[in-house]
Amino acid sequence: MKKGLLKQILGTVLVGVLAIGVTACGSDNTTSNAVNAESEKGTDNSELKPLRIGIGGSDGGGILEGAALAVENGYFEEELAEVGYYPEYVYFTGAGPEINEAFAGGNIDAAIVGDFPTFTAKSNGIDNTIIALTNQKVNYGILTTEKDATSISDLKGKTAVVYGGSITQFFWQNYLVAENIQEDEIPSVNSTDATTLLTSGDAQIYPVTSYMAYFLESTGLGHVIDTSDANIWTTFVFEINTDLVQSNPDVGVAVNKALIRSARAAQENPQSQYDALASENISAEAWEKYYSADPTLSNLSPEITNEVLEFYETENKWMLDNGVIANSVDVSSFVDTSYYEKALKELAE
Alpha helices, DSSP H only, in the chain? Predict the structure, then answer.
């Protein structure tokens, strides 16, 4: 593949992924696309209220994770209809920052997004609540253009592309500590233009979510060094406007029921999960490699575990200590597990 074409493709794909870690509320160039899934199927929603769900990416490649089959199989439609709502999917190519901006403007009610921008929004006064997860453990990979490198130790003296103030920086710092490598042994450059730096040879390392790492590998840009053994991860969440869910708790339960059904369907037929997430940018094969660290897909459960809660405390402190957020987030009030617990009970009845 020619470098010019590769850069053109990746410029579109990477903007959404990199933006997940950006701490500002996003640019003025918001691109969104509202999709009323039930209307496309011909169902009358005239007596239902919309639940506007923001999703990073595009309607041909949204980052849905464990919600993929809830969207593909209509579980959100079925469960929300029982409580008087229907899902309206709104896609944002700028992901986290644009989703935060949409929340601030009252243009969406909920979102499927990484936890990092969610904490940023909460710290900045956007009153949302995390009621479920769409991936309990989002792993990272290291894309490198060094052909003979098989571990991080082989990359000493090389240069990494790490966007400052992002979840990638959080991962990278903690990963180097876990591998007993000093930061000055692998210097980093602060940039959002990883593709240019990698293709020009000015950098040789790009730590990134492993689904993106495997996609980039599929383009021939480099190869992936798996980091899942280090057990350093992040999460994807389902967040919702606090006033809405407290006034309508059945909505929170319905969302969790749809996500539980989605996770179970994925676990029963993993290929359906890969296919549901596949797009012209990231293939089903890349998604399968991404999930190889958890082939049972157990991490797609929407349950917010104690391990996740402990991670949020660590992440919140790191964000505060590094100036990413100005105000600490009270994790205990930001996360509400009661909707999942009730959904699990209702599905068992």
Answer: 3-19, 37-40, 68-72, 75-81, 96-104, 115-123, 167-178, 194-200, 210-218, 242-247, 249-268, 270-277, 284-290, 306-321, 331-334, 338-348
